[in-house]
Automatic annotation (TrEMBL):
GO terms for molecular function: alanyl aminopeptidase activity; serine-type peptidase activity. Keywords: Aminopeptidase, Hydrolase, Protease, Serine protease. InterPro entries: Class_I_gatase-like, Peptidase_S51. It comes from Aliivibrio fischeri (strain ATCC 700601 / ES114). Its EC number is 3.4.11.2. SUPFAM superfamilies: Class I glutamine amidotransferase-like. This is (Alpha)-aspartyl dipeptidase. GO terms for biological process: proteolysis. Pfam families: Peptidase_S51. Gene3D superfamilies: 3.40.50.880.
Length: 245
């Protein structure tokens, strides 16, 4: 498997989506020789799916990669398109809409087979990272649709909170992000949550997990009954791949 799970799409100073992880993306694409990339844009709500495809194509052009990005929403046979793709990209947006659409179209199994069995490279950011978890219960998004579905791709055996923000807002008396994650752990005691802040990503290559950052921000690991633990780039976090939910 060759999986990049980005916290978000852009950081300050970036003009292109995923640009902060450009070295990792270039290395992945060159190693796998992927040319035909399929973008899954179903999470996008406030702009068109075609516009998102164009933005992502601009990124690959900017990075000097000879890849063609096509939108899965344009496919007459989405399952076949996933089966024939050299690489799978999953845009950020609303995780609930994305996950339900994948289930409705019968794409969970084909994506898992492509990524886990056939070694097709996967790049997701924000919602595209959330669906890499066993479930989408640690997304920050509102369930804006009815009939929402929780189980997802289960590419990694732990939960992720993208866009993780360790902050308290003056005058705001609602729960902080840390408190929301602690609530999750009170109900789901055996499921650790990995908070990855803006400008960071996880890479899973042949079962080996590593953490990377474009801005020196650490990963924050939450486990029930324990104080959160910080990990930086280069720290050993392989034990998370051995976790069983």
């Amino acid at each position: 498997m060759d999986i990049l799970l980005l916290s978000n799409g852009k950081i300050a100073g970036n003009n292109h989506v995923m640009e902060f992880a450009s070295e990792a993306i270039i290395e992945q694409i060159q190693r796998t020789k992927a040319k035909n990339l399929v973008l899954i844009p179903y999470a996008v709500i406030r702009s068109s799916h075609d516009d998102r495809v164009a933005l992502v194509q601009q990124t690959f052009d900017h990075l000097g990669l000879d890849c063609k990005v096509t939108g899965l929403h344009r496919s007459e046979d989405p399952v076949k398109t996933i089966q024939e793709a050299d690489g799978i990209l999953v845009s950020g947006g609303n995780t609930w809409v994305l996950n339900k659409t994948l289930h409705d179209l019968g794409l969970i199994g084909p994506i898992r087979k492509a990524v886990l069995d056939n070694g097709v490279p996967y790049i997701g950011w924000s919602a595209g990272t959330n669906i890499g978890c066993p479930t989408i219960r640690t997304t920050n998004d509102m369930p804006i649709i009815t009939g929402a579905i929780l189980p997802s791709l289960n590419l990694v055996p732990f939960q992720i909170n993208p866009h993780y923000l360790e902050a308290s807002v003056e005058g705001h008396f609602g729960e902080t992000r840390d408190e929301r994650i602690q609530e999750f752990l009170e109900v789901n005691k055996h499921e650790p949550v990995v908070g990855i802040p803006e400008g960071t990503w996880l890479h899973i290559l042949d079962g080996k997990l590593s953490y990377h950052t474009a801005n020196e921000k650490p990963l924050k690991l939450f486990s029930h009954g324990k104080e959160p633990v910080y990990y930086g780039a280069g720290d050993d976090i392989q034990f998370l791949m051995e976790h069983s939910c």
